[in-house]
Amino acid sequence: MKEVAxxxxxxxxxxxxxxxxxxxxxxxxxxxxxKNYQQEKGAATKNKFFKILERLAINNEDCSWAAxxxxxxxxxRKLDLDAFAALKSDPAAKSLREVYLAYPGFYAIAVYRLSxxxxxxxxxxxxxxxxxxxxxxxxxxxxxxxxIGDSFFIDHATGIVIGxxxxxxxxxxxxxxxxxxxIQVKKSMxxxxxxxxxxxxxxxxxxxTILGGDVVIGENSIIGANVCITExxxxxxxxxxxxxxxxxxRK
Length: 251
Description:
GO terms for molecular function: acyltransferase activity. This protein is 40% helix and 14% strand. It is an alpha/beta fold. It folds into 2 domains: 13-139, Orthogonal Bundle (serine acetyltransferase, domain 1); 146-242, UDP N-Acetylglucosamine Acyltransferase, domain 1 (3 Solenoid), CATH 2.160.10.10. Strands 1-4-7-10-13 form a 5-stranded parallel beta sheet. A 5-stranded parallel beta sheet has the order 3-6-9-12-14. Helix 1 packs across helix 7 (126-138) and helix 4 (72-89) packs antiparallel against helix 6. The protein is globular.
């Protein structure tokens, strides 16, 4: 049986489209945090939205800008909680302004919350393009299909992977290099829950790996650095690995 290659027209697939999505994403962030910008540039941002959908050959009639724009206050509410979680948790954070402007993890979360809303509106492709822009900019890869609750803090946003069916509840902190992934990579599992669930008030330290759709990290747990977990962890648990470091005095 011959494989038929899917034809993609130059009009619908180009690096220029990626550039347009990056500009659109930046404008959305500005609209969220600057009311004057939203009033002045709102119509232009809306225009870009429909032009991108047109380039992606997505039916504009089914994609409501009004529903997306109406979600901004709730997205901003969640982002304010995310920023406050960073300020409260990170000794290096001196102000909310610093978190808003200088924390790549916060930026990645902001793009996630916007792209997640678009995905909820059943808009294909565009949410993934937005999340990949944030990935390339911040080093944090959050699939827009993940479910993330309030007060989410990413400390040192480098090498983070959060898979499509991950569920993260409220007041969760993760550090650099954390992977919340699937235990197997099979196309037949696409419609199943492949990624873990993180309950409330969990801290996951650097380079920890948590794999599997049935895995639940119970609330109030602490997952130490370099841990690999493929089984459920009960609430109020601390998981660590023994260090193999040997310290001796120099002669």
